[in-house]
Design brief:
With 96 residues, the protein is mostly helical. It is 76% helix and 0% strand. It contains three helices and no strands. α2 runs antiparallel to α3. The radius of gyration is 19 Å and the shape is elongated. It starts with a helix and ends with a helix.
């Protein structure tokens, strides 16, 4: 009986920690300077942006205020636009 309670408490704590983590606002990733970036930096930025969007989507599912929701959506759009601009500039630079 005592062991069952301990297991249940541990599982509950793990579940709670995942909820708390999902409800933490993620920080936007660093976008490299397209004028000096090399391919591995751009690939890392792409992966970082994708991870950021995934965490931001989890955050949006939390019980947050409308202002927090709208702010997160605006930040996501801004991050995506910065990344897309960097990719376009990087591709233009690589094309010569």
């Amino acid at each position: 009986m005592r062991r069952s309670l301990l297991i249940a408490a541990t599982l509950g704590a793990l579940g709670f920690s995942q909820i708390v983590f999902a409800c933490s606002r993620p920080a936007p990733p660093e976008i490299p300077d397209p004028n000096t970036a090399v391919t591995p930096q751009m690939i890392k930025a792409k992966n970082d942006v994708q991870a950021y969007v995934g965490e931001a989507e989890k955050y949006l599912k939390c019980n947050i205020s409308t202002a927090q929701h709208n702010s997160m959506v605006d930040e996501m759009k801004e991050t995506a636009e910065k990344f897309n601009q960097a990719v376009r500039a990087y591709k233009a630079r690589m094309a010569g």
